[in-house]
Amino acid sequence: MEDVILCKNVSKRFWEKSDPERDDQIGKGRTKRSIGGRKREVAALDDVSFRVGKGEVLGILGANGSGKSTLIRVISTLLYPDEGLVEVFGLDVRKHPHAIRPRISRVSVEASFFKKLSALENLVFSGRLYGLSRTETVTKSAAILRRLGFSEQKMRAPLENMSRGQQQKVAIARAFLTEPELLLLDEPTTGLDPKSRRDVQEFVEEVKATGQTTIILTTHDMAEAERLCDRVAILDGGRLVALDTADGLKRKVGVEAGNLEDVFFAFAGRKWEDEEEDEHEA
Amino acid sequence: MSMKPEHELDETGIPHIASPPRRWTPGREWRTMYAFVERNFHLVRRYLSWEIVNIFYSIINAMTIGLISFAAPAKDKAATTLFLVIGALMWGYLSILFDEVANSITYERWEGTIEYTFMAPIRRLTHLLGTCLWGASYGLLRTLIVLAVAAWFFHLPLSKANLLAAIVALLISSLSFMGLGLIAAVLPLLSTERGAQATHIIQGVILLVSGIYYPVTVLPRFVQWLSNFSPATYALDTTRAALLDGAGLGVLWPSLLKLFAIGVALIPIGLAIFTTAEHYAMRTGRLKRNG
To answer: At what angle do helices B124-154 and B48-67 cross, to 10 degrees?
Structure first.
C-alpha cells in the first residue's frame, strides 16, 4: 500500500516552566534558567515511528499530554520536529510544506473560527484561501452542512450563537471543503453531545467508505476508535507504545473479549484517573 | 463510468476524489488577498457600533491637536492648524494601519484560527499584504472622514490644496507603512497577550522622529538624523506640500520616488523578519492557543 504518512524516529521537546517539587516526582528532562524563571525540558514526542497507507484510518489513543496534538501539528506542517523524519505524500514536512498543505486538512478539538462571523462567512474565507470561488464554497459547504443536519438559516447565523457541537460540525465542513487527501482529526468529538457525536462519526464513516481519504483520528473515546479506525496506536508520555488493529492489540494483552480501554490500561500502565490527578496537580 | 469531475461532492456532501493541487496564478493571489479584506470587512460590520466610537475618537483627537494652533499668532493660525491637522491625520492613518495589521494577527491567535491560516496553501506575503491592504483601505476611508469633519470645523484653507497629490502621496507611503506593519505583526505573533500593545513602541518611535506635530528641524541633531530613515517624514513632507502649498505631482515626484523606494525595500525586509519569527514559532510551538 502507498504510504501517505511516514514518521521515522520523530522526537519533539518543549521547555516548560519548572515546578521543582513536581520535577522531583517525575524525575525527567533537563532544566535551564531563563528570564522567566527555571524551565524544564519535556518530551512531547519521543522516537515515534509509524506508517499510514492510502485510505487508511489510524486512531491515536493517549491520555491528555501524551503527545497526540503535537503529532498532529507536526504532520500538518505547523510544528518542526527536533529529530527524525516526517514525510507526507513522500514529501518532507520541513522542506516541502507548500506542496503538502493543499492536500491536507485538520479539525482540532477547539472549533477555531471568527465567532462573530456566520458559518458561511467563515467557510467562504477558508475556501478562498484554498482557491475556491465564493459560489463553489457556498455550494459545497451547504451540501456538507445539510448532511450534518444544518438548516439554511443556521448556516447564516454567527458562530457565537451556536453550540459547541454545531461549531464542530462547521469545522468538519471546513476540513472537507477542500477534499483533502489526508484528514487530521484531533479529538473531533470531544465534548459533543451524543447526537452530534454520532452525526460526526457517521460522516467520517461515509468518507472512509469512499477509500480516497486517509484519516488520522486522535480520540479519548475507545468505542469511537474501535468503530472508525483500521489500526490503533497508543501514545504514552510521547512514546508510541502500541500499534495494531483493535483485535490485534486485544490479542497482545490477552483481552480478546474485552474492550480497548483494557488494552489502553495495559499499554499505558496507568488509569485515566491517574492522568487527571496529574493534571490537577500541575 | 461516472463523468463527474474529480473534485465534485455528491448530493450527500461526501467528497469523492481529492483534487490535485491548484496552480499559482496572479489572479489567485489577488483573490487570496481579497479574502482577508472581505473577512475584515465582515468583522468591522459586526462591530460597527465600536467602529463608530473609534471614528468619533479619531475626530476628537484631530480636533484636539488642531486646537493647539489657536494659541498661535493670528497671522499663522490657519497654516498652523493645517500643519497640525495633517500631522494628526497622518498619525491616525498610520495608527489604523498598524492596529489593523497587529489586531488581525492577535485576533487570529485569540480565536485559534492562525494555525488554519498558516496551514492554508498561501504565500505569507499574500497573506500579510491582504491584511495590510485592508488596513490601508480602511485607514484611508477613516482618514477622509476625519479630514472632512476637520475641514468643516476648522474652516481649513484647502482652496489651493492639491488633494489628488496628497492622496497619491498617502497611497505611495502606504507601501512603506505596510513594510513596517509586517515588522510590527511579529510582536502579536510571538505574544498574544502583550504583542499588539508592543506595536505602539514602533508607532511611538515614528511619532518622535518623523515631525508629525512639529518640524523635524526642532529635534536634537541625532534624532533629526534618525528622521531620515522614517518613511513618515517623507510622507508628511509631501502631504503637507500638497495640501499647504498646492504642490503637484510634477514637483513632488523626487520625494514620492524616495518614498516608493523605501516601501519597496521595507516590504521584503518586513517579510523576512516575519518569516523568521514564523519559523521560530513553528520550532517552539508558539502558534497554538491551547492543546
So the answer is: 50
Residue position matching grid coordinates 456532501: B13
Q: How far is B217 from chain A (nearest CA, A)?
A: 41
Mean pLDDT of all residues in B101-124: 90
| Backbone CA torsion sign across B115, B120, B123, B128 | negative
Q: How many residues does chain B have?
A: 291
Alpha-carbon span A85 to A243, nearest angstrom: 19
Running DSSP on this structure, what letter comes out for residue A157? Answer: S
What pTM does this model have? 0.85
**Within the 11-40 window of chain A, which residues sit less than 8 Å (CB to CB) from chain B?**
14-15
| pLDDT of A234 over the 60 cut | yes
Q: Does A70 touch chain B (CB under 8 A)?
A: yes
The answer to whether the Cβ–Cβ distance between A115 and B21 falls below 8 Å is no
Full DSSP string of A37-74: EEEEEEEEEEEEEEEEETT-EEEEEE-TTSSHHHHHHH
pLDDT digits (tens, 9 = 90+) for A4-21: 999 999 999 988 777 766
* Interface contact A77, partner B, CB < 8 A: yes
Quick one: closest CA in A to B38, which residue? A125
**CB neighbour class for B153 (10 Å; exposed up to 12, middle 13-18, buried from 19):** middle
pLDDT in tens, B185-209: 898 888 877 877 888 888 899 999 9
B291 to chain A, any CB pair closer than 8 A? The answer is yes
Q: Where are the alpha helices (DSSP H) in chain A?
A: 20-26, 68-75, 97-100, 119-129, 134-147, 152-155, 164-177, 194-210, 222-228, 246-253, 260-268, 272-281
pLDDT over 70 at A278, yes or no: no
Q: Tell me the CA end-to-end span of chain B in Å, nearest whole number.
A: 45
Q: Among partner residues B18, B116, B283, which is closest to A181 by beta-carbon distance?
A: B18
- Cβ of B18 and A213 within 8 Å? yes
Q: How would residue B290 be classed by pLDDT, with cut points 50, 70 and 90?
A: low
Q: Contact, B33 vs B124, CB < 8 A?
A: no
CA atoms of A163 and A29, how far apart (whole Å): 40
Residues contacting A132, CB < 8 A, separation 6+:
A140, A177, A178
Chain B positions touching A69 (Cβ under 8 A) are 288, 291
| Cα–Cα distance measured from residue A60 to residue A45, given in angstroms and rounded to the nearest whole number | 13
Residues of B in contact with A172 (CB under 8 A): none
ipTM, two decimals, is 0.88
What is the Cα–Cα distance from B223 to B205, expressed in whole angstroms?
10
Look at B159 and A213; give whichever has higher pLDDT: A213
